[in-house]
Amino acid sequence: MPELSSHRRHLILAICCASALVVVMDISAVNVALPSIRRELHATASGLAWTVDAYTLVLAGFLVLAGSTADRFGRRRVFLTGLAVFGAGSLLCGLAPTLPWLIGARVLQAAGGTMLNPVAMAIVATTFPEPRQRARAIGVFGSTTGLALALGPILGGALVDGLGWHSVFWINVPVVTAAFVCAALFVPESRAARARRFDPVGQTLVALVLGGIVFCVIESRRLGWSSPVILGLLALAVLGAFGLLRYEPRRADPLLEPRLFRSVPFGSALLMALFALCGFGAFLFVTTQYLQDVRGLPALTTGLCLLPVGALIVALSPLTGRLVAARGPRLPLLVAGTALALGGGASLWLGPRTPLPLVLATYLLFGVFLGTVNPPITDTAVSGMPRSMAGVAASLASAGRQTGTTLGVAVSGAIVAAVPPGDGPAFTAAAHGVWWTVSGLGLGIVLLGLVSTGRWAEGTAAEAAALFEGADEPPPGAPTPATPDSRHRV
C-alpha cells in the first residue's frame, strides 16, 4: 500500500464510517417503521419478524465469509461490491408493493451489508498501521455504531411520519452512492498476506442451522411445533450442528475455528454477544410497537422516546472502552448484565397508561446496558489471542451479535404473535414473556462476565493461543508481502 497523507487516511475513515452508519441504522430505523408496514402491507406478527430477521439472519450467517473473501480478492473490490448491492437492495425495499417483495429485497440488502462492516474494519486497520493511531481510528469506527443506534429511531420516525415507510430505505441510496464514488476514488486496494481458505461446507451448514432455528421460532405460532415442516427443519438444524462438530476440526482453515473455543473468554464472549443482542433485538421489536400501537404515539415521537437510549450509548461507549483498557472487562460486563436484567424486570410494570416519564426512565436502563456491553465483549473475545486470530475472533463475535438480534426478534415476535393489533392490554400482558426472557439474558451476562474474567479463564485463553503459534507465517517459499500487516480485523 502506498504511503497515504493524513488527510486521505481520515477521508478513508469517514467513508468506512458512512458504510457502518447505514448498515446499523437500518436495523433500528426499520423497527420504527414496522407498525406502518403492518398497516399498509397487511403484515402479520411473523411477517414483521421476517422483515427484520431476513436482514439480520443473512448478516449473521455470512459475515465471516465476507471477511475472508475480501482478504483474498481485495478489500476495496469487495467493499465497492457491497455498497452497490446494499444500495440496490435499499432501492428495491423502498419500491416494495407486497411483504414478500420487501422480505426478498431485505435479503439482497443484507447480502451487501455483509461486505461492508467487517471489510470496512479491515480497511481502517490497514489504513492506520501505527498502533496508537489504529486504536483511535477503530474507536471512532466503533462509536459510529452507537451514533447509528441513536439516530436510527429518530430519523426513521421523521421519515415515516413525513414521507411514509418507503423513505426509510430510500434514504440509504444517496449515502451509499456518495460512499461508492469516494471509495472508488480514494480507498487503495489491500489484501491479506495469508488469506484463509474458503469453507463452503462449513458455510452451508452454518446457514442451515441458523435459518432452520429462526424459521421454526418465527413460524411455530402459525404452524405449531408438531408440524412436519417444523419438526423436519429442527431435525436438519440438529444434523447441521453435528456436521459442524465433525467437519470443522478436520479443516486447515475452518469457518468456525474449533481451537478458539478452548478459550473460556472467547466462548463466553460469543455467548454474551448472543445474549446481549438478543435482549436488544427483543427490546426494540416490542418497544416500537408498544409506543405506537398501544400508546398511539406517532413514529417521530416514538423515535424521540428512544433518544435517551441512543444518547447513553454514545456517551458511555468511549468511557467503557477506557475503563476496559485500564481495569479489564469484568466491571463493565457486570454493569451491563445488571442493567439489562433490571430493565427487563422494570418493563413488566409497563401498561397502556403508565406515565410516559416512568416509561422513559425504564428505557434508560437499556441505554446503560447497550452503552457498556460491546467494548468488554470485543475485548474478551480477543483476550490472549495471537494477532493472526484476532480478526477471526472479532468477526465471530460480530456474527454472534447478529445472531442474537435475529433470535431476539424471532422469539419476541412469536410471543406476541397471537395478540390482535390495537389490543393494548393483551399486548402488554403477552410482552411479559419477552421481559422475563430479557431479564434472564441479563443474569446470564452477569454470570458469564464473572466466569470469563478470572485467572482460570485467562489460563485457558493462553493455552488456546499456544495452539496458533506460527499461524502468522506465510507458507514456505512465499514472497514477503509488500503491504503492511493487514490481516487483523480487530
Low-confidence stretches: 474-490
Shape verdict: globular
Strand content: under 5%
Helix content range: over 70%
Q: How does the helix and strand content classify structurally?
A: mainly alpha
Radius of gyration based on Cα positions? 22 Å
**How many extended strands?**
0
Specify the CATH class of the largest domain.
Mainly Alpha
Summarize the structure.
The protein is built from 18 helices and no strands.
What would you note in describing this structure?
The chain is an all-alpha fold. The protein folds into 3 domains: 1-187, MFS general substrate transporter like domains (Growth Hormone, Chain: A, Up-down Bundle); 200-250; 259-467, Growth Hormone, Chain: A. It has 18 helices and no strands. The chain has helices spanning 6-41, 45-73, 75-94, 99-113, 117-127, 131-163, 167-170, 172-186, 200-223, 228-247, 264-294, 299-305, 307-327, 330-347, 356-382, 387-416, 424-451, 455-466. The protein is globular. It starts with 5 loop residues before the first helix and ends in a 24-residue tail after the last helix. Mean pLDDT is 84; it is low at 474-490.
